[in-house]
Structures are given as structure tokens and as C-alpha cells.
Predict the structure of FMN dependent NADH:quinone oxidoreductase.
Amino acid sequence: MTAILHIDASARKERSISRTLGETFKHQWLTEKPADRFIYRDIGSTPPDFISESWIAAVFTPEEKRTDEQNLLLALSDVLIEELSEADVIVISTPMYNYGMPASLKAWIDQIVRINKTFTFDLNRGDFPLEPTLSGKFLVLITSCGEFGFEENGARETMNHLGPHLRTLSKYLGADEIHEINVEYQEFGDKRHKRSIESAYKSIPELIKRITKKLASPESPV
């Protein structure tokens, strides 16, 4: 049985393109693989706490020396990391806000990219002392944006701080393979937007087949 962690980051509950696409992905996945398990977290509606000075101090305190208060500060982080660890596939459905990720998604990332949990730090490795502890996962990014041209060599390539940021962080999520489904032109609301939505929906079944086939393969990274 495959475990899929689905993170919804849109602040909108209604008329959210990324939410609707994420729900469609889940429905079509379960149609193909009804025995699989989805772990769902709606951080758009219930954002994780931002990390604080006290949180950082707790992280860097040896586990056996932490106070009850410090353990309480890290309780949510522990749960989020456990959810991530269990997942074979991570689905992040999120809009682009101000050319980057929503604050709730950044808060989730900050809660789980944590020393001695999702990465280790060793200066004996030279200039690259950080090493992820998780691996073998598939990451699916389902994104929506108001403008267009954020792809490589696109008109707004240098303004895209959502996809590239998540790709940079993906290794700390344990992702060895990344797929993106993008909807553009939302603010224009024209035929290009309609075509972009249609293309996104059409890509979902094929992507699910590709991932499930790889998961079933003996050579799968998972």
C-alpha cells in the first residue's frame, strides 16, 4: 500500500484552482489504487506555527535535556515530520502568492526541515555539511498563478520563486523525483487560462500512471 501526503496551501476554501486540482488528483489516484492511503493536511486553513527563538533553542537542545515546554514546542514539528516520513508520494497543491509560496507553506517547510530529523550536519563533509536523511519519494507540485511565463526561458522566469524554491527544498523532503502541474493566466481569465486548466486536468491521469508504475517497479526509488 502506498502512502500519499497531500498538503493544501491555498488560503481560499472556495474557487481555489490548486485545491480543486489537488482533490481531482486524489480522486483519480484512489480510482486507480483504492487501497492506498492519503494523509491530508490543510495548512491553508490551519497554518502551522511560525518557528521562534524558543523553538530554535529547543531544536538544538539534546533530546534527553529538553524541558517539557520545549517538547511541547516541538510536538507539531514531530507530527509533521512523521507524516512526511510515512509518505511515498508528496502532493503539494498551492497557489503562487507574490511570486513565491504562501506563508503557511513556508511555515510547514520550516517545521519539517530540521536538524537531526530530516537532515544531519557534519563539518567533516567540507563545504556541504548538510545531508538529507529521507529519500526515495516522489514530489508532485500542483500550482496556480495569476500571470504566465514562469517556466524556463519564459518571460517571467526570474520572477518565479515558488517552483524553484520547492525544488531546492525537495531533497530535504526526501524527494528523488519531481513532477509539476501548472495553471497560468488566472488573472486574465481568457482562452489561454481555459486551455491551461484543461491541460492541467488532462495531465493528471497520465502522471498517476507513471508514478504508480514506478512505485510497482523493483527499481523504484521508494
In short: The chain has a mean pLDDT of 96. Residues 99 and 161 are 6 Å apart (CA to CA).
